[in-house]
From TrEMBL:
Hydrolase recorded as keyword: yes
Keywords associated with the record: Hydrolase, Lyase, Protease, Stress response
GO (cellular component) term, any one: cytoplasm
Taxonomy of the source species: Bacteria, Bacillati, Bacillota, Negativicutes, Veillonellales
Classification via Pfam families: DJ-1_PfpI (PF01965)
Keyword Protease: yes
Family: Belongs to the peptidase C56 family. HSP31-like subfamily.
Protein name, as recorded: Putative intracellular protease/amidase
Domain DJ-1/PfpI: 52-241
GO BP of this protein: methylglyoxal catabolic process to D-lactate via S-lactoyl-glutathione; proteolysis
Cited InterPro entries: Class_I_gatase-like, DJ-1/PfpI, Prot/Nucl_acid_deglycase
């Protein structure tokens, strides 16, 4: 009888490390939320800026993450024509194909995900920035201290969400996004529904504006934000690093 108990104890001890490894090495999941809006009020085309989706998406896939792409309505995500040449290069084709059939955000079990990432283009300022469904997801990720990332105008979608104490998620946080100076350079300062930089400041964020078109990100706790398309790679790498090193 004693021998059986000893053997049982040894087996249990051997299995415990295996279980811990399995939990630590579980599949990592990233939810990417993209716009469904394709024009400014004057009819000028906009949408998603492809680089801001394709570069982080590719990095996430290469890291072995499972990536789900969703929009408010599902279906095809409009790509800003200014963000692509006449044809999409091979390195971004997989990402571009994914954008042709996004999932419906309200049908996603977002609690399963390790990170939330929102790319830009001017489109998100029209739909995602006014989405209570997305606000709820952002607030959940913040409450759970999960990674929240956004690049360029994607940062504008973070400004309405609130923390458990009722304050904006971005209050007292160092963040960045497409700057007023950059809006002027692309002749969109009179077209956008709001200034991302100005609204961020009114929400109590510590908005950091880098030199126009500089590769610039800010990391403050679980918030990771990038200024512009040029920041897409650095932001994607920061998200990968953060997800892999979550306790």
């Amino acid at each position: 009888m004693l021998t059986i108990l000893v053997i049982t104890a040894i087996v249990v001890l051997l299995l415990l490390p295996m279980n811990r490894v399995s939990a630590n090495e579980r599949e990592k999941k990233v939810l990417m939320v993209v716009t469904h809006h394709d024009h400014f009020d004057n009819g000028r085309k906009t949408g998603l800026w492809l680089e801001e989706f394709a570069v982080p998406y590719t990095l996430f896939v290469e890291a072995g993450f499972t990536v789900t792409t969703a929009s408010l309505q599902g279906g095809s995500c409009p790509i800003d024509p200014g963000s692509v040449d006449k044809r999409i290069g091979a390195e971004w084709k997989q990402a571009a194909d994914i954008l042709q059939q996004t999932e419906i955000l309200s049908q996603i079990n977002y609690q399963e995900y390790d990170a939330l990432m929102i790319p830009g283009g001017h489109g998100p300022l029209y739909d995602l920035a006014n989405s209570k469904a997305l606000d709820e997801i952002i607030s959940y990720f913040d409450a759970q201290n999960k990674i929240i990332a956004a690049v360029c105008h994607g940062t504008g979608t973070l400004l309405q969400a609130v923390r458990k104490d009722g304050m904006p998620v971005v209050t007292d946080k160092k963040i960045t996004g497409f700057t007023n100076a950059e809006e002027i350079l692309v002749q969109a300062e009179q077209l956008v529904p709001f200034s991302l930089e100005d609204r961020a400041n009114t929400k109590g964020a510590r908005f950091v504006a880098g030199t126009p078109w500089s590769d610039h990100i800010e990391i403050d706790g679980n918030l990771i934000t990038g200024q512009n398309p040029q920041s897409s790679k650095q932001l994607g790498e920061a998200v990968v690093n953060a997800v892999l090193h979550v306790d």
